[in-house]
Amino acid sequence: MDSPEPPDALLAMHDVGKSFYGVSVLSNVDIDVYPGEVHAVVGENGAGKSTLMKIASGVHQPDSGSLRIAGEPVVLHNPREAQAAGVGIIHQEFNLLPERTVAENVFLGREPTRRGLVDRRAMRARTAELLASVGAETVRPTDRVGQLGVAQQQVVEIVKALSLDARILIMDEPTAALADHEVELLYALVRRLQARGIGILYVSHRLAEVFDLSSRITVLKDGRRVVTVDTADATPEALVRHMVGRELASYYPPKAGAPGAALVTLAGAGNGRLRPIDLELRSGEVLGVGGLQGSGRSALARALFGVESFTAGQMTLDGKPVRPRSPRQAVRAGIAYVTEDRKGEGLALSQSVLDNALLASRAATPRWFGGGARTTSVRALLAAVEVHAAGVDQEVRYLSGGNQQKVVLARWLAMAPRVLLFDEPTRGIDVGAKAAIHELIRDLADKGAAVLMISSELPELLGMSDRIVVMRDGALAGELPGDASEEAVLSLATGTPHEVPA
Amino acid sequence: MTTLTARRPRIDSTNGVWLALGMTLIIGGILVATDGGSLFGQNSTVSLLQRAAGLGIVAVGQTFAILAGSLDLSVAYVISLTSLIAAETMAGSDGRVLPAILAVVAVSGAIGLVNGLLITKLRINAFIATLGVGLLIKGYLEQGYAGPAGSVPVSFQHLGYDRVGPVPVAFLLFIGVAAVAWVVINRSRFGHHLIATGGDLDVARLSGVRTDWVLIRTHVICSLCAGIAGLYLASRLGAGAPRVGAEGGYDLESIAAVVLGGTVLAGGKGGVAGTVGGVLLLAVIDGIFNQLAVDPFFKQVVRGVVIVAAVAIYAMRLRRKVVRKAAA
Amino acid sequence: MTVEAPTGPAALGQSRRGRWGAGSIAPVVVILVLLLVAVGIRQPDFYDPPALLAFLKRAAPLIILAAGQYFVIVAGDFDLSVGSLVTAEVVIAARLIDGDPGATWPVVALVLGFGLLVGLVNGLVTTLLLVPSFITTLGMYLILVGAVYTWTGGSPRGALSEEFRMLGRRGIEGVPWLGEIPYAVLILLVLAGLAILAMRSDFGKVLLAVGDNPRAARLAGGRVAGVRTIAFVVSGGCAAVAAILLGGFGGVSFQVGAGLEFTAITAVVLGGVVLGGGRGSVVGAMLGALTLQTLLTLLNLLGVAGALASAVQGLIILAAVAIGGLRART
Amino acid sequence: TNPSASASADAGAGTGETSEFFVQADYDNEIALRTTSATGPSDKPWEQALNPQNADTAKYKKAGPYNLCFSNAGVGNPWRQVGFKNMQAEVKLHPEIKSFQVADAESKDDKQISDITDLLGKGCDALIVSPNTTATLTPAVEQACAKVPVIVFDRGVNTKCPVTFINPIGGYAFGAAGAEFLIEKVKPGGNVLALRILPGVDVLEARWGAAKVAFDKSQLKVVGVEFTDGDAAKTKTIVNNYIQRFGNIDGIWMDAGATSVAAAEAFEDLGKPFPAIVGEDQQDFLRMWQDKKLTAVAPTYPTYQWRTPVIAALKILKGEQVPSPWKLPQPTITDANLSQYVDPSMPPLHYAMCGCSDLPGYPGDWGGK
Ligand SMILES: Nc1ncnc2c1ncn2[C@@H]1O[C@H](COP(=O)(O)OP(=O)(O)OP(=O)(O)O)[C@@H](O)[C@H]1O
Ligand SMILES: Nc1ncnc2c1ncn2[C@@H]1O[C@H](COP(=O)(O)OP(=O)(O)OP(=O)(O)O)[C@@H](O)[C@H]1O
Ligand SMILES: O[C@@H]1[C@H](O)[C@H](O)CO[C@H]1O
Ligand SMILES: [Mg+2]
Ligand SMILES: [Mg+2]
C-alpha cells in the first residue's frame, strides 16, 4: 500500500482468455483500473463485457491469463474470494431475493453477527446509513425487495455493492433499468465513490454516460480488446466505429408523414394500476410512451395485451369493441407485445432460436399441417433481422442480448401483427443492434402497423416517436408532438408544470 | 423516485395453518362430543401429542431441506436404520446409551453428507439423489433384518413414555428441536444463507454464499433430525424396527406437513413455525378420526383432500394479496 | 460464440445441441447398450425374437407410464398419482367386469375415461388452484388409494374377463419367425409413435416452452394452464393403458401399481429429462424405462437377490444420473 | 454368502445360508404339532385347540354386558381384511357384547402403542391385540395387562402377561407343508424356484426357514430364491426369466399364495406344462387349481383365527378356562379336499379357510354373491 511512485493498478487483468463449450468468448484481453478512476468498457452485445467482469469478480475462472489486485497476483475461485479481495460487482441482471428485506439482501453472505447470531439491528442500521449515503431514504431496510420498484431495486443493488467496502467496484450496465433523471443520481454516486479512491469498471451501452463519467474507455469486439483510449481523446463516432467496425450514418430512421386511421382506441380504460385512459393508436404511427419508472407504462402495454386486462372503460380495435382477457386473445386479434424483461418473460432459454421464433405461431395459432411452410418463412425472417447465432438450432440462452431481442422480434413479425407494443425494445442492446431494431420498428409502422413504444431513454423516445404520451401515477399526464424537447417530457413525467412549452 | 408500496402487517401463509388448526379443533371437538367422546380427554390428548412428536422432528428437518430448495426422500429409511443402530448399540444396557446416541448422530450425519454431496458435487437432482440413497439403505435393511432387533434399556424409554403433566417428553423434544431450528433459520447466518439459496441459487452464489456448502449442511441437518426421530422411535418401541420409517410414511408425510405449514415447495419462503402447525393439524385430524373410529381407508381420502385444499387456499390468498397489492 | 454466420437456410443445423448435455439421450443409450450386451452374454437366447418380444411386452407398461410422466415432467410438474391410479383402475375393472366377458369393452372405455378424468382433475387443481403438482398428485394418490379400498371394502372383488386380460397377456399368434406378437407391444408402438408425433407437433413445442418459461409461453399467446392440464390428462391416460396391460398381464391385486410413480419418474430422469421442465425428449424417457427394465432383468439373471437388488438399483440410478449430469457440465 | 448360489450347484443346494431368524426349538415344536390331533368341536376348528393347557381366569370374572376393545395392527392386505370381517361378525353373534371399539394402527408400530393407551382410557373390559410387530408392542401390551385381561393373536409378543395367545401352528409348519409336497411330486434332480414376497418379515422368514430345511435334505435343485414384492407382474417376469434360463422349472414354492396364480400363468403363457406348485387358500388359486387340474397344494394360515379372540375374551370375562397358549389347527388343502373349499361366488382374493359361512352377513359382507 505504501508504494509512493506510480501507484499499482488496483486491478489488472492480463492476457485473459475464456471459452464456453469450446467457443472462445474472450481472448488476450488486458485491462486495468486505478484508484479513483472510472474505466468504461463498451462493445456490442456479446462482445464479452459481462464475461470479463464476471472473471474479475470470481464468478467465472479464466482459461488463461492472470489477475493482479494491488500488484499482488490473485486467483479468485468464487465470488466470496473476490469480495474478500475487495472486488464488488453490480451485475447486469438483478441479483436480489424478492422475498427478503432490503437489509437481508444487502448483507447477504456477510451478515454481521453478535454472540453467534445475526445482528439484525446492526444490519438494519448499517443499511439505513448506506441508503442515506446515496440519498435513497425512501427505501427502508425492512422493506421486502419484491415490493420495490425497479429503480429502487437498482439502488439496493448499489448499496449492496457499497456495503462491501470494495476498493474496486464493477458496474455492469447499472443504468439499463433507470430512467434519465435517476441516472443523474447514479452519476452523483459514482463521483462520490471516485472521490473515496475506489476504482470503477463501468460497462454501458449509453455512450453519453461513458463520456460523462469515465477517464478511459476500452472497446471490446468479439472477445478481443480493440483499443483503450483516454476519454478526452475519444469521440462517439470513433468509438462506434471501433465497436461495430463500420460507420453508423444517422441514429434514427426518418419519421412518418401523415398518420393513418385510428386502429386502437381507449376510452376511460383502466384497471387496478391504471386510472381511466383515453388514447388512440394510429396505423402507420409510432406512439412513444414516456414516464418515470412505475408510472404505469408497462401496465398500459400489459393491459392492451390482456396480461392484466382493463377492468373498466372501452377498448376498440378497428372500431369493434374488444377487451383481451389473455395474451392469447390479444395475439389472435393481431396485437404483439415485446416485453421489457427479455429473459424472464420473453424467451424460453433452453429452446432453440428457431423454436423461440416459432413460439407465438405455434402457441396462438397451432395447427397440425402446414408447419413446413411456416418454418421456412420464420427462417427467412430470422435471416432478415440478421440474428447472429451458430445456427437456428442453437439454444437461445447462448445468444447475446441484442440477438435474443431480434429472435423475439422475428417471433412477432411472423404473426404479421397490426398493433405492436414495444416495452423498452432496446434496453441493454448495443448501438449497432439498436439501430437495426429502430429500422425494423419504423419499417413496421410504414407498412401500416400501429406501434406503441415505451422507452426510458429520452433520446430514443424523441428520436423514434411521431407522437408522445407521458404517463404519471397510472394516468396520462399529457401528450406531446414527436419533436418535443427532453425538458417537456420530463416536466410532464415528474409533474413540475412550470416549463411545459405551449 | 416514486414509492407506492403499500405497508400493512404481513399476512404469512404460515399463519394460515394455525387458523386451520384452530378451526379443526373447534369443529372436531364438537363432532367428537356429539359422538359421545371427548377430543380433549387426557388419554386422547396424550396420544395425539405423542404421535405428533415423531413426525414433527422429521418434518423440522424436512423444513430445512425444502427451504433450501431441496427435498429429502430418504428420511424414512434413515429413521428405520437409526432406530436399529440405537437399539442394537444400547443392547439393553444403560451404560451404552451415550455411545448409541453418538453412533446415530454419526451415521445419520454421514447419510446427510452423502445426500448433500450427491446433490452439489455430482449435480444429481435432490429427488433422484435422495430416492437412490433411500433405496440403498432399504436394501441394507432388508438384507440384514427380519424384524425388530436390539433392545433399549428402561432408562432410555423415559423419552418415549414419560410425561410432564399431560405433555409427553417426546413432544417437548419436538418443540425443543423446532425452537432450535427456528433460531438457526431465522437468526443465524447459516439460516439466512439457507433461505437465500432456496430463494435463488444464483443470486446467493453471486452474493458470496457458498451454496454447495449450505446445501450439504442442510442435508446433514435434515438427516440428523431423522436420526433423532429414529432415537425417539427406538425408545418408544423398545427396539429398532427395520420398517418403522417406511410404514410410517415419514417421507411423504413430512413433506406434506411442511407444505401444509405454508413453506413453499420451491424453497426460499416459509419457516419452522408453520411446520409445527402443519404437524399438529395432521395429528389433530388423525386424533379426531380415531375418536370417531372412522374407517382407515376413508381417513386416507380425507387426508388427501385436506392437504390439497389447504395448499390451494394458501395459493388463492397469495394470489389475492398480489392483486390487492397491485390495486393499492 | 457469435460466430458471424448469418442465420438462414444456409446455416441450418450447423451446431446441434450438446450431444451429451442435459436433455440429451446419449448417456441412456450407452447405458442401455451396455446392459443389453451384459444380458446377451449371460443369456444368449434373450435375443431370439420371441424372447425379445416377450421382454418388450413386460416392459411395455412401464415405458407407457414413463411416456405419460414425461409430458408432465417436461412441463415442469410431477405426477405422483400414477401408481395408485394403476391400482385403482385394475381394481375398478375387476369389480365392474366381475368375470362377465360382455362387460369387457365398456369397462375398458370406462377405465380409459377414468384415467383421463383423474389427469384432468390433477391438471385443473394444479393450474387453476395453483397447488404445486407435487402436492396435488400426492393428495390424489392418498385419495385414490383410500377411495378404492373404501369402495371395495379393502380387498379386490370380482374378476377380470379373459377378453380384458388378453390385451396384456396375449398376442397375434403364429407369426412366422417372430412367434407371437404381443398386443402390448403393438399398443406400445402405437402410443410411442403418437407420443413422438405429439412432441413434434405445435403442442409439443409449446409444452417444452411452458416447462422452460411459462411466463414467456403465456405472453407468446400460449394456453399455459391448458397445455399443462393436457399433460396431466396424457399422464392419466397412459396410466390407464398401463393399468389395462398390467391387469391383463398379472391379474387383479392391490400391489399392481405400488411404487410405480417413483419408478416412472426415475425412468424419465434416467432418460436425460430434467426435473423442472423444458429439457429432454420423450424418446429418452421411454429409453430410460427400457433401461430400467433391462437392469431388473439383468439383476435377475445374475441372481442378485431381492434385498440387494434394491440397493444395486439405487446405486446404478445414482451413477447413471450423475454421469449424465457431469457430462452436461463439461 | 451368496443367497442364490449358482444354478450348477448340487441337488439340495442353492438355498443359501440358514437364516439368522431360524429358531430350531420353535421349528421342532411346530413340526410336532402338525401331527397332533385337536380337541374341541371338529366342525368349528376356531374353537379347537392343540395340546391345550388351560389357564384359570376366575379373577377376571365379571357380569356383562361387556365392552370389548381391539387394537388392530392394520387391514393392509386381503388376509387381514377377511380376518377382520370374521371378527366383526363373531362379535354380532354375542348379544352380551355391548360395545366393540377398534383402533386401527395402519401398520404403524408407534401408532399402535398410542392406540393401546387410548383404548385403555375407554373403559374396556378386555383388550384384544393383533400386534404389528412382536418386540415393539411388548411394552405396551405389558402396560395393558396391568389393567385389563389381554388376548393376543396372530403375531405374538415377548411377554407371558396376556391371558392367552391365540394362533394356528405357524410359519414353519406352513413352509414345510409346501416343500414336502414338492419333494414328493417333483422328480429327484428337478428344478425348484422359491418365490418369496419380502425379506425381513418374521412370519415369512419362518416359512422359508422350514422349506429350506426340507429342500436341503432333498434331491431337488433350488435354482433360485427370489422376492416378488407380492406383485403379480413382477412374479410373472421372474418366472419367465427362470424358465428361459433353465429350460424348465419343475416346482414352484411360495411363501404366500398372493401371486401363485401369476406364477402358474407364466408357464401357461409360454406354452409350458404347469409345474408342481404351492399356493394358499385364496379363491383365485383354488379355482385355477380345479379348472386346470394343477399339481398343487395349499398350506393355510387360517383366517378363522380372528373369531377365536372374541370367544376367548367372553370366556375370560365369564371366568371360564381358556387354553393358553391357544394353538389352532392349521389344515392344508390338497386334491382330496379341494372341492370343499372352491367357491366361485366369493371374490378372487377371499381366503377359503375363513370359517365364516355360518356367520351373520355371509357372503355379502365378504364381497361374495
Ligand atoms: N455461461 C455461459 N455459457 C455459454 N456461453 C456464454 C455464457 N455466458 C456468456 N456466454 C456467451 O459469451 C458471449 C459473451 O457474453 P457476454 O455476456 O460477456 O457479452 P456482453 O458483452 O456482456 O453482452 P451484452 O452487451 O449483451 O451484455 C456471448 O456470446 C454469450 O452468449
Ligand atoms: N416481476 C414482474 N412480474 C410480472 N409483472 C411485473 C413484474 N414487475 C412488474 N410487473 C408488471 O409490470 C408493470 C410494470 O411495473 P412497474 O412498477 O415497473 O411500473 P410501470 O410504470 O408499469 O412500468 P414502467 O417502468 O415501464 O413505466 C406492472 O403492470 C406490473 O404489474
Ligand atoms: O399380517 C398377516 C399375518 O400376520 C399372517 O402371518 C400372514 O399374512 C400377513 O399378512
Ligand atoms: Mg453483458
Ligand atoms: Mg416498465
Automatic annotation (TrEMBL), chain A:
GO molecular function, one term: ATP binding
Superkingdom of this protein's organism: Bacteria
Main localization of the protein described in the UniProt heading: membrane
Mode of membrane association: Peripheral membrane protein
Localization terms from the record: Cell membrane
InterPro entries tied to this protein: AAA+_ATPase, ABC_carbohydrate_import_ATPase, ABC_transporter-like_ATP-bd, ABC_transporter-like_CS, P-loop_NTPase
CDD domains in the cross-refs: ABC_Carb_Monos_I (cd03216), ABC_Carb_Monos_II (cd03215)
Record's keyword annotation contains Cell membrane: yes
GO cellular component: plasma membrane
Family annotation (SUPFAM superfamilies): P-loop containing nucleoside triphosphate hydrolases (SSF52540)
Pfam families per the UniProt record, alphabetical: ABC_tran (PF00005)
ABC transporter domain span: 11-247, 258-498
Keyword Transport tagged: yes
PROSITE patterns referenced in this protein's UniProt entry, alphabetically: ABC_TRANSPORTER_1 (PS00211), ABC_TRANSPORTER_2 (PS50893)
Protein name as it appears in the record: Ribose transport system ATP-binding protein
TrEMBL record, chain B:
Gene Ontology CC entries for this record: plasma membrane
Primary localization: membrane
Classification via Pfam families: BPD_transp_2
Example GO molecular function: transmembrane transporter activity
Membrane topology: Multi-pass membrane protein
Record's keyword terms, sorted: Cell membrane, Membrane, Transmembrane, Transmembrane helix
Location in or out of the cell: Cell membrane
Chain segments annotated as coiled-coil in the UniProt record: none
TM spans (from-to): 17-40, 52-77, 97-119, 126-146, 166-185, 214-234, 297-316
Keyword Transmembrane: yes
InterPro entries: ABC_transp_permease (IPR001851)
Descriptive protein name: Ribose transport system permease protein
Automatic annotation (TrEMBL), chain C:
One cellular component (GO) term of this entry: plasma membrane
InterPro entries according to UniProt: ABC_transp_permease
Membrane topology (UniProt): Multi-pass membrane protein
Location within or outside the cell: Cell membrane
Keywords from the named record: Cell membrane, Membrane, Transmembrane, Transmembrane helix
Domain of life: Bacteria
Gene Ontology MF: a single term: transmembrane transporter activity
Pfam families with a match to the protein in the record: BPD_transp_2
TM regions (residue ranges): 20-41, 62-83, 103-121, 128-151, 181-199, 225-246, 252-275, 282-302, 308-326
Keyword Cell membrane assigned: yes
Protein name: Ribose transport system permease protein
